[in-house]
Model the fold of this input.
Amino acid sequence: MSEPLNPFYISQKRNMNLVLLENKDFIDNERVVLRGRRFKHLISVNKVLRNDRLVCGLLNDKIGTGLITNVENDSLEMKVHLTDDPPRPLPLTLVLALPRPKMLKRIIESVTSLGVKKIYLINSWRVEKSFWQTPLLKEESLRKQMVLGLEQSRDTVLPEIYQKRFFTQFVKEELPQISKNSLCITAHPKSSRICPAGINKHITLAIGPEGGFIDIEVATLKEQGFSSYHIGQRILKVETAVTCLISRLYS
Amino acid sequence: MSEPLNPFYISQKRNMNLVLLENKDFIDNERVVLRGRRFKHLISVNKVLRNDRLVCGLLNDKIGTGLITNVENDSLEMKVHLTDDPPRPLPLTLVLALPRPKMLKRIIESVTSLGVKKIYLINSWRVEKSFWQTPLLKEESLRKQMVLGLEQSRDTVLPEIYQKRFFTQFVKEELPQISKNSLCITAHPKSSRICPAGINKHITLAIGPEGGFIDIEVATLKEQGFSSYHIGQRILKVETAVTCLISRLYS
Done:
């Protein structure tokens, strides 16, 4: 939901609003060749043609445009000109009890599109042990979801995702350093206080699994300075709650 | 994400946080028999036993508890006591360009869980014609998604969903009456104004398809009093944007 970056913007359905480039795509200083997924998506969904200009960005780097100079059967070539900074990251560190695999996939994509750059996936009493076995936690799989989120939101900066399988050790030994100088919030349905809105500073936000953190976990987080807040009377799915909380905190 | 309704609350994984009853489930004034989906979910996911108490609600009516008095192979019986009002509806009328089927399903469930009670699915230039053919638009299918949303958020009041296939006719002839006395907002990425937050009044919110409403549609909405706003530099998926907007407007 954004102003097009430049006058060459082409209306694009689905979620490749930016062509994310990597260094290895470059054949010289300014020319790239695309094959595979991106090529297929651009041809079949975006229906691009020679001389079209697309919004492009280099991974963890600048954003700009690419002029399609040649289209072959299995590849296309663009001349790119990358001049602008990617959108500002959201000053939020997300500490999330590992959701079930299908939901994990969608959450990684959506929080990436919202601009979150640091995600800690942690264990918690109500996280089913089997969730830690999912191949979706492998680096290339997480990266795939993040790339979809970046392409969607026209960003280039890949989030960092950390996996922490020991709740108490993580919260007591690592979280104090991670959350230093930030507002520390535990989203907790049983809290009596409603979550603040429109905070424009760095936040570390801890969100429990379906069913919530258990009381001792909330207490352990509280010892590290995390105050707990609810976001209303309704129980929401974790994926809905994550988006609601982020939108509320930065409204 | 809510305070349990009563001390008999049982931690429940997944999304049946309330057992939604219908009049036909009652075998007398206070006893119900459940079979099929709800029975299976309660047994296999929630692992309920005789003498457990569950949060229950009667469709479009009160909420309370049910005491399981008997469990058979294919059914269970509860004695229910329904005393409380369902959570307040969100004072929001959602006018949504028909999303693609998979997304439609998730959006209906999530906006129901957020408390939206009136949804107009409308056509728009960038809505693919084929989307109107999906069986997911059939009444029983929409109802299924709404029921999941109600069970998730402990609500009983089924939203009303209307399907409007003629954009201009709908906006010019019906929308003025529908949106009367409400704040009228078009979510539009190209707008130069950021969407207001923390509005606590009735809102009619129009959200376009992937790619947004086209300019003439925004203008037609504007003629009916709809001001357009963006929600930031990032382009979001419609399902993420819907949740963000609702959370922001009622933060």
Chain B has two domains: 19-84, 92-249. Residues 53 and 133 of chain B are 42 Å apart (CA to CA). The domain at 92-249 of chain B is CATH 3.40.1280.10 (Alpha/beta knot). The helical segments of chain B are 36-44, 101-113, 139-153, 167-178, 215-223, 238-249.
